[in-house]
Design goal:
Layout (H helix, E strand, L loop, with lengths): L1 E2 L19 H7 L9 E6 L14 H10 L4 E8 L2 E10 L2 E6 L5 E5 L13 H14 L5 H4 L7 E5 L2 E4 L22 H6 L22 E6 L3 E6 L12 E6 L3 H9 L5 E2 L7 H4 L5 E7 L2 E7 L9 H10 L2 H9 L3 E3 L22 H10 L6 E8 L3 H15 L3 E8 L1 H9 L5 E7 L5 H9 L16 H10 L5 H17 L3 E14 L2 E2 L15 E2 L1
Parallel strand pairs: 2-11, 2-12, 16-17, 16-18
Antiparallel strand pairs: 1-18, 3-4, 5-6, 6-8, 7-8, 9-10, 10-11, 13-19, 14-18, 14-19, 15-19, 20-21
Helix pairs in contact: 8-10, 9-11, 13-14, 14-15
Length: about 525
């Protein structure tokens, strides 16, 4: 639910570098060889910032919380193009069933069998404590909960039933309880180690954990985390009994380790290397489309991007399939709207913008720029996909006499620079953590979100804003679809941006690992996997 340049979930997003060593160092420090039965070694570029689910806000943290903690509901599975992949459909987690009422409230029925890894039973009071804890601490991911739930809306009906009442009607209230931030923690454990303080991080929980999930944290160092199977887990014991999370900052080192089968999975190998990786002996690549949307934005707060003819001219000047193919190396799914096809209410609203240079030149002339113009374009430095897009876009816009001045800036300054209107055009992305149209459209296009609120396009349309806000209050999907479809059509007519692609979750893995299910939200669940 954030722009890609912020710290968020998604293996392509977390960028926190740590000091590393040579290939030999990483091989020497592995606690178990990769062919050791029931041990999985995953290499990633950065350590977690916090494994407290109430604080975790980057992919490297959430990967760990996903294995240790559980939420009321989780993600389902489906078959797509003959492959077993993860879906966004709510599936039972700690709750075996639920009922949603007309006001958006949800009654959750908890399993009677769940225990925390110390043997404490999981019950409705623990759910209440956990959600209140998130609201009270009020850390980064808390807004997912606090925006739609307050303490007065959490009702324990009995030991295994909890009723959650939204603070205002929200069509996607149920989906919130798939998110890691709503994970259930043990009150006894938390209170014994720092408790809950208002607006304050619990430093102990940042690198210690105790949940009801399939794994326990048994070791935490600056170079690796080790998780082992939770013997008190109430579900089936996982085939993989040890999960080693290895910090390998250099992607090329990850690639070499994977080639040598010294690790099982690598999360940061660039797309342009996948054609090499897929030919490694004993290595395969798992993929699934995500709920992300990568796009080229137009800052309508400044000239010439406040001119519709200019925006539409650029839409017709670019060859989007060409940009997607040559920038993502086949791992981007072309988009025809401002949300991904995996998201409810998607329609191909931008499908009529196919490359037409004659039309593009005429629109530019109509705007008063028959002799061309210069536009400043920004993208994040160190991103090979963004760099490739910039080069291709510069070449294509030259065909209609637009000179694109390229400027790459660091990720930690990107949002401020773009949100304060320093660039007429920019390349960015949005990852829908809830994978709902509200999650993908509220911040990006509401007139009250312009600038730092997320609407970097400074798009201001009262009908679109009204449709987005009203749709989010309608429980009936057919009725809210009509509003979201209308909003997408207007966004296309107004050429608010150039939708590019939905990035795939690409997971290279050794062939002896089975049952790897890639999820659209970039989650990885080790307990689903087996090693032969």
């Amino acid at each position: 639910m954030e722009h890609k340049t912020k710290i968020l979930i998604g293996v392509v997003i977390a960028v926190i570098l740590v000091v590393g060593g040579s290939l030999g160092y990483y091989e020497a420090t592995h606690k178990a060889p990769v062919n050791n039965a029931h041990t999985l070694i995953l290499a990633t570029s950065a350590p977690p910032t916090s494994i407290d689910p109430a604080v975790a806000y980057d992919s490297n943290s959430v990967i760990i919380t996903d294995q240790i903690y559980q939420t009321l509901i989780t993600y389902g599975n489906t078959t797509y193009n003959g492959e077993h992949v993860g879906s966004l459909t709510p599936a039972p987690g700690l709750a075996t069933s639920w009922e949603q009422f007309s006001n958006g409230s949800v009654l959750f029925n908890l399993t009677h069998n769940a225990k925390f890894s110390n043997g404490d039973p999981v019950n409705a009071s623990d759910v209440q404590f956990s959600l209140n804890r998130v609201i009270t601490m009020d850390q980064g991911p808390a807004f997912h909960v606090a925006a739609f739930l307050n303490s007065s809306g959490i009702h324990v009906l009995n030991t295994y039933q909890v009723l959650l009442v939204p603070s205002h009607k929200y069509a996607f209230f149920l989906n919130l309880f798939q998110l890691w931030v709503t994970s259930v923690v043990d009150p006894n454990y938390v209170n014994a180690h720092g408790g809950v303080q208002k607006d304050t991080v619990n430093t102990y929980m940042a690198d210690h954990a105790m949940g009801s999930g399939p794994y326990n944290l048994t070791s935490y160092t600056s170079t690796e985390l080790v998780l082992t199977a939770n013997q008190n887990y109430w579900g089936p014991q996982p085939n993989i009994t040890k999960f080693i999370y290895e910090i390998v900052p250099d992607p090329s080192t990850q690639q070499l380790l994977l080639q040598k089968h010294s690790i099982n999975m690598a999360l940061n190998i660039p797309f342009d290397e996948m054609s090499t990786v897929k030919n490694y002996s004993g290595v395969k690549i798992e993929t699934v489309g995500t709920s992300s949307e990568y796009y080229i934005g137009f800052d309508e707060n400044v000239s010439p991007m406040n001119n519709l003819d200019v925006r539409q001219a650029i839409e017709y000047a670019v060859n989007r399939p060409n940009i997607v193919q040559y920038s993502t190396f086949g791992y981007g799914i072309p988009l025809q709207s401002v949300i991904a096809p995996s998201v409810e209410s998607y329609i191909p609203a931008f499908q009529n913008y196919t490359q037409n240079l004659t039309k593009a030149k005429q629109l530019l002339a109509d705007a008063g720029y028959s002799h061309g113009l210069t536009i400043y374009y920004n993208y994040t430095s160190g991103d090979p996909v963004g760099s490739a897009i910039a080069t291709i876009l510069q070449s294509e816009l030259a065909n209609i006499s637009i000179t694109l001045k390229l400027d790459s800036i660091t990720a930690n300054t990107f949002n401020t620079e773009v949100a304060t209107g320093h660039y007429e055009m920019f390349y960015d992305a949005w990852v829908n953590l809830l994978a709902t149209p509200d999650d993908g459209m509220r911040a990006l296009f509401l007139n009250t979100s312009m600038g730092l609120g997320g609407n970097y396009n400074f798009f201001n349309n009262s009908t679109v804003s009204s449709d987005i806000l009203n749709a989010a209050t309608i429980i009936n999907q057919t009725q809210r679809d009509a509003l979201y479809h209308n909003a997408q059509d207007i966004l296309a007519q107004q050429a608010v941006e150039i939708p590019l692609f939905n990035e795939e979750n690409v997971v290279p893995v050794t062939s002896n690992v089975h049952g790897v299910i890639a999820y659209p939200t970039f989650d990885v669940f080790v307990a689903n996997m087996q090693i032969s």
